Amino acid sequence: MLSLVIFLPLVAAVVLAVARGLPDAAARWAWVGVTLVEVLLVGVLWARYETPAPGALAFDQQVEWIPGLGASYHVGLDGLSLPLMALTAVVFAACAVYALAESTRPRSQAALFCFLQTTCLGLFAAADLVVFFLFFDLSIVGMYFAIAGWGHGNAPGSAQRSALQFFLYTFLGSLALLLGFIGLYVASGTFDMVALAADPPLVGAGMTGGLVLAAVLVGLAVKTPTVPFHTWLPPAHTDAPAVGSAVLAGVLLKMGTYGFVRIAMPMLPDAWRSSAWVLIAVGVVSVVWGALVALAQTDLKRMVAYTSVNHMGYVVVAVGAAGVVGGSAEEARALAVTGAVTQMVSHGLITGALFLLAGVLHRRAGTYEISRFGGLAGRAPRYAALFAVAAFASLGLPGFSGFVAEVQVFAGSIAAVPWTAVALVGILLTAALFLRALQRLLTGAPGEMTASVADVRASELVAVAPLLVLATLIGVLPRPLLEVVEPAAQTVVALVGR
User: Fold this and answer.
1) What is the pTM (predicted TM-score) of this model?
2) DSSP readout, 437-476?
3) CB 401 within 8 A of CB 349
């Protein structure tokens, strides 16, 4: 069943690509139908999921693929990957519904995003490094075409330039990642991720292990993105269509942070422990720098883009703190990793909603400039309510998933490394930037573009509201998610500390 979940969107993509006579409306609804089926199938996987033994996977499937390399089609799920599979299904479903109101090459867009959904699902389910890398690289190709084909840059050719910058930057990171994977293979003779985690090949290898980890971390840090590898992110988001930005921030960025906990930590534990302080420092800088730069933005979409650097920085702080073994309790480090995974899910839901809401403004007014709006609470009350909920959720208000994630991240990280409390400044800055955006967009005198902003349509409401409802449910009732994540987090921490 897991392979069906992974490849059903790809089958739909092929059908949509060859069905040249398919009406536009039928293509849009076919995309919606496929994504809703995916949500149901992932829901069945979640209902049938039973926590596997440490180091094992649920729904495990393995078929010989490239015998000479020792590579196989190997997929499976645990508490790290299942929540991200669910997040992927939900975000793509929201994007499909949101796109019902768009008219630019709908069949091609639906086919492309179905293809992109398979790359995301396949990566989170991958249990072989070659399979992981295949889906990692194909996701770059899919997002390149999404930005170049449906982007809306302010200047002619802007979207194409941003797409090219995104592709070259992230493809360079993927080459570094491939180099790291080859290093693991040379040292072990296998690409199987379960085997590599059970018996890390470079324990005690000193500089060699450090170099392999550095290659893996560069590739993953570009995708995350962390400072200083974040410069591709703002132009890519600014020029991408709303559904492209929602998928990029909501799902694709998680490929980097997921790689930290799935690959780098358990497969290179010695090198991870040695590099933990560097990772913590990078995470703290990303948290504070991302919030400061976001605070300076006048473009709503760029502001939300920089908050992704800030929020992903919390994940890096947490996984870095989990590598500081001496003098810290294993329970605290496991709590930090649980918070990191919860933060990935939370950020995907909330930031996906924020990018779709930013897209609503661009649909109406053709701009993201905050100063050109004002008084939207009176003009578009439903939009104002959705944006306010998303903003308060993103700044970590209690009652939302962001609060649950950040409390775990900081409780675990500070217990392990007290000076990570410096990153708390990022929460204050995030609150300031979102409150200022709320004031400028929703209150005060109407701006020059306010009159052009009609309230959210049915498709926009149905796309955004479920993301925020899920973020609220996790904030109020986090136990169903945490019960899945916690055992896997404890396994990762035990592997790092061995």
Assistant:
1) 0.95
2) HHHHHHSSS--TTGGG-PPPPHHHHHHHHHHHHHHHHHHH
3) yes
